[in-house]
Amino acid sequence: MNLSCSQWQDNSESVKHFAFAKFSAAAEQCLLLFTLILLMFLASLTGNALIALAICTNPTLHTPMYFFLANLSLLEIGYTCSVIPKMLQSLVSEARGISREGCATQMFFFTLFAISECCLLAAMAFDRYMAICSPLHYATRMSRGLCAQLAVVSWAVGCVVGLGQTNYIFSLNFCGPCEIDHFFCDLPPILALACGDTSRNEAAVFVVAVLCISSPFLLIIASYGRILAAVLIMPSPEGRRKALSTCSSHLLVVTLFYGSGSVTYLRPKASHSPGIDKLLALFYTVVTSMLNPIIYSLRNKEVKAALWRTLWKKALTRG
């Protein structure tokens, strides 16, 4: 299949279709990567769906911490589903094209879920801060209404940023080439294909990245700074161990998500390379989403117990 821009572009118009660059000319490498990504994708979907289902169906987990965890699992499902299916198709098929509208849609949903997750991780850190630093007032302050508001704000911020960034980038003209040197319609590789001066758009992407990645991250750091100070003055070693164990899973997820995101969107443009960008993209779209349910289920007895109860009920129902 010929993927040249000439078949998709009139002389007087901007490019209407794009094509994802082929990962490798060797079919064996593409098939191996397809298999690995597919397995991780299925593991991510299964793990996150089971955690969300276990939390929703077990009344003992109807607490603020698990409410946010269920939201995180739903975000991870949307996050991976917005990117991975097209990525898998491009690996084993010559149909690697995507329309301008399809690319914009993918960018919007990817940005929506990614930014919402940034905000939700900050809300989860605030919840842990309230639970450890103000345990006597935790139940009243972290009410269902406040938790719902924090979740809605997280999703709303993601939606607004997704709409704004997508509209701003796709208001540009794309004169060719039309091949996206990436696995999906991420912001930097799409900007690289635009005609004319894109410095304002690049600045907007950077500013949004600073605000939506750095600001929640600073809130997380501040929350855990207060938590650490509170834990250090606890008289009971058992109390310190329990407090730290409830935060360790969240801290690990934050490190994985913010670490890969910061390297991708906050490093200077001159240091970007397609190979490294693709590797990072695989990490924060596939690997991190697969690891999150493993991290939370393995390090949390209540989640493990709820998962077993859910699976047991399913088995009995089928039997």
How would you portray this structure in words?
The chain starts with 16 loop residues before the first strand and ends with a helix. The longest helix has 34 residues, at 100-133. It is 73% helix and 3% strand. The chain is built from eleven helices and three strands. Helix 1 (27-57) packs parallel to helix 10 and helix 1 packs across helix 11 (301-318). The protein has helices spanning 27-57, 64-81, 84-92, 100-133, 138-141, 144-169, 187-191, 199-232, 237-265, 274-298, 301-318; strands at residues 17-20, 97-99, 179-180. The chain has 319 residues and is an all-alpha fold. Residues 1-12 have low confidence and may be disordered. A three-stranded mixed beta sheet has the order 2-1-3.
The strands making up the biggest β-sheet line up spatially as 2-1-3
Determine the fraction of residues in helical runs and give it as a percent range. Answer: over 70%
Order of helices and strands: EHHHEHHHEHHHHH
Instruction: Determine the number of helices (DSSP H or I, runs of at least 4 residues).
Output: 11
The assigned structural class equals: mainly alpha
**Coarse morphology:** globular
Average pLDDT works out at: 83
Give the termini separation.
49 Å
Low-confidence stretches: 1-12
Strand content: under 5%
Number of strands: 3
Sheet having the most strands: 3 strands, mixed
Radius of gyration over all CA atoms, rounded: 22 Å
